[in-house]
Amino acid sequence: MNEPRPRQDDLRSIEHPGLSPAPDLEWLLPRLLATVRCVSDELRPQARLAATLGLDHSLERDYGLDSLARVELIARVDRDLGVALGEAALTEAETPRDLLRFITRTGGRAADTAGPVEPRSTQQPPVADTAPESYPPDAVQTLVAVFEWHLQRHPDRVLITLYENGDQPVDLSYADLHRDALALAAGLRALGLDRGDKVAIMLPTGREFFAAFFGALVAGAVPVPLYPPARPSQLEDHLKRITGIMRNAQARVLVTVERAKPLAHLLRAQVETLQTVGTVADLSLADSPAAPAELAASDIAFLQYTSGSTGDPKGVILTHANLLANLRAMWRASKVSSTDTFVSWLPLYHDMGLIGACLGALVLGFHLVLMSPLAFLARPARWLETIHRYRGTVSAAPNFAYELCLAKVSDADLARLDLSSWRLAFNGAEPVSPDTLERFAARFAPCGLKREALTPVYGLAESTVGLAFPPVGRGPWIDRVDRATLARDGVAAKARPDDAQPLRIVSCGLPLPGHEMRVIDAGGRELPERAQGRVQFRGPSSTQGYLNNPVANQGLFDGAWLNTGDLGYMAAGELFLTGREKDIIIRGGFNIHPQELETAVADIAGIRKGGVAVFAASDPRSGTERLVVLAETRVRDPVQRQQMAQAITALSATLLGAPADDVVLAPPRSVLKTSSGKTRRAACRELYEQGRLGVTQRAPWRQWAALAATAAAARARRAWRSGGRLAWGLWAWAVFCALAALALCAVLVVPGLDRRRRAARALTLGAIRLIGLPVRMEGLDRLPPGRPLIVVANHASYVDSILLGAVLPAEFSFAAKRELADVPLIGPALRRLGIAFVERFDATQGVEDTRSLEARVRAGESMVFFPEGTLRRASGLQPFKLGAFVIAAETGTPLVPVTLNGTRSLLRDQAWLPQRGDVRVTIGEPIPPAGPGWDHALELRDAARKAMAAGLSETTLDV
Asked: Does any domain span residue 653?
């Protein structure tokens, strides 16, 4: 591939201060661009546009690289260029130039895959606990009391070894975490938070997360962990998505990163309870330590929001009693103690990472070695190397992580690993594949990993985190079931030894001590072993329900039992899951489960891993359900696509006993996923039934007919909407012109300024009512009567001054640009309304006009200003001119910020036809000036801008 030679200014613009020797950019730059373009072309083979893109094009918008594509890109750059970008490049790099900057920061050193991995225990051994009393007794009933118990006995013991930035670990003791928590708790109490108030935490893996989480607990508040955005560029969209959770939780404080603070108005405008958005540093009061709150076991410890909860938030209520009961039951079942070392990269917003690893460490006192999820995604071998380095005994991950290690850990990495210390490799949080278990055991056996260490488990947030664990040291139990009997009769009969295609299902284990599970039929009757049905549970770990969600609670509880939403059967007292209750496909009286077919289809050449969804679609003609397979592929060749569809159909017939009714081969990212990566089959089905995924097996003429009908309907809808908009716009113009003529006559004829203004105001309000424009007024009572005021408003449309003239009291005068004074009829009418004209282009005259306005305000007149000067099409607030703020500061007149929403869409700059839409006028609290002078005028400007931006539905860039 011939790459264009980089320009010299490209090379000079790459910053690499203080590095010696510097990377050879003449060699590096074209190779990096080639790698980025290669990945981009693989994602969009039909476009082939990457060759035209360069250093400063966006990796996401231009090159089309999503999160997973970035993981692949980072891995290829590390491998092909022999450098170590690190996990920060995964989220912070927006362009190839940014990737180059990451490379130059390291001086172009090779990726950390060549040298031996030295056990850290030989460099800095973790503190071992040999005291006989190393585990708090059951009489300690809250997480805060557990924390205090450990703190009194071994404050300096290392609880967490944290890899927060790169490969430099930080050891955190109980005393360190306690000090951080007390400072944050003091800050929360200073804000007036009461016991039980909710504190949302949107932070990446790091020390600040623990300060926020434990600090909220110490203050008696309820932490609400939220998943952080994948990349800084997604921050605003991400904040919009979590507003549903914030509203449901009724959060009063959001603890987040610095870069999220400027967008806090997006949340405050939609979350009424939200009082403060700040960082840990903002909120902490180190000099005012707070005493721990007095808590009871029945108090809510924190809220765990389940996957896909942004649309219909399900905040699982977990009490201190729930958490301690579950942790103690899990670790007793698995024989984990304070002498273990748990290595984790699991995100802290997820129950398996937060409860199983972090709170497990707090309660039991084992050593936790914690990495960022990004560190694992950027280089999966790092997880296994950390287990090797620390002689880790326990670790946990979803099934996909084990698959990622199989795909990404090289033979060279394998040769350097010693995994003989790893005795519990938990696999949970998503369906466990028997093939993954067996291949992982075989691949890493040379590293000392024992098959018995592989431990599939089952849990859900509604049972805190864990519900079923297998016996320690047994290894996976994979049940071979006759698939026809299970589909036909709902019975998990054992497959014959000569069955070539048995259904293989992995055991999730036994119920935790003190917990119960059962399987019931549709009528609520408990089923015998090996009979498939709905899985229910109960026990001390069971949630009290979902916060503020009575509809979801009705589906959760069945008397004393709770529904898991899963289907399965019991055998030898152990649970075997067969699928989700809502995902089951009933076709011709047979129950069909999608997971196995999805796994098999993903192995077909050309099909993207993880890009398969099998679901049912209604078929009213046959009275049963259609079996649909949606598979993502980049293949465009018609012959190859036909072969892939045939292979999928054959697999369906072999595995399920019935061919797929429809196979949809779709481009990448067509299969919808939750935030935690689970397939949203119901959402895929909805798109399919709407015809938005396409249908591959219909006759061509039917496809063309359907497309033509869809296009015709779309055109008709567009024509109807367009006609309606035109009719309303013309009606608005007709009303405006008619009443404007009446207002002009009244202003020119009626004696007295106050009468003229009232007449113009009444006619304007009449026009608004006649055209049916929805205008909502907020905060009119905030205008203090009987004293002069200065109103400043954003300027988004030609109608702003007309609208404000209608809703503000008649005594307000307006400042307008001087050009209007020379317009025939309009100029004289404006003068008779007391409008003050301001020169915009002649600086000397402008100063004089400002002095004139200042004199009018000193005389007791209230004025309205548009500090942006003139309107523009661009959304958001433009830079403010200082005239209004100088006048307010010099005269001591309170400044009232007013925010107009909707007027830009009503009549944009350079447009002539009004567009009907909601309009909102929000009057803010008056801002008293601190005194005269330039500095105080600037303070007024900044305060007004902040208040207006907070109420503006448009995003404003800092200026």
From this structure: yes
Check: pTM over 0.90? Answer yes or no.
no
Q: Please tell me whether residues 675 and 577 are part of one structural domain.
A: no
Whether 534 and 608 map to the same domain: the answer is: no
Amino acid type, 263: L
Instruction: Please indicate, yes or no, whether residues 486 and 604 belong to a single structural domain of this protein.
Output: no
Number of Cβ within 10 Å of residue 434's Cβ equals 19
Rounded to an integer, the average pLDDT of 782-797 is 88
Closest CA to 384 of 422, 355, 349, 351: 422
* Domain encompassing residue 538: 460-583
Query: Residues 47, 150: one domain?
Result: no
Task: Give the CATH number of the domain where residue 266 resides.
Answer: 3.40.50.12780
For residue 824, list its beta bridge partners. Answer: none
The pLDDT value given to residue 810: 81
Measure the CA–CA gap between 670 and 694, rounded to whole angstroms. 11
Same domain, 94 and 165: no
Nearest alpha carbon to residue 509 among 575, 461, 425: 575
Out of 297-311, 660-674, 762-776, least confident range: 297-311
Does residue 608 lie within any of the structural domains? yes
**59 three-state secondary structure:** coil
Structure tokens belonging to residue 279: 């960082």
List, in order, residues 6 or more apart from 173 with CB less than 8 Å away: 155, 156, 157, 158, 159
In angstroms, rounded to a whole number, what is the distance separating the alpha carbons of residues 396 and 220? 30
So what's the pLDDT on residue 959? Answer: 34
User: What gap in Å lies between CA 114 and CA 107, rounded to an integer?
Assistant: 17
Q: Do residues 674 and 789 share a domain?
A: no
Is there a domain that residue 116 lies in?
no
Tokens 């190839």 belong to which residue?
Answer: 96
Q: What is the pLDDT of residue 230?
A: 62
pLDDT score recorded for residue 28:
79
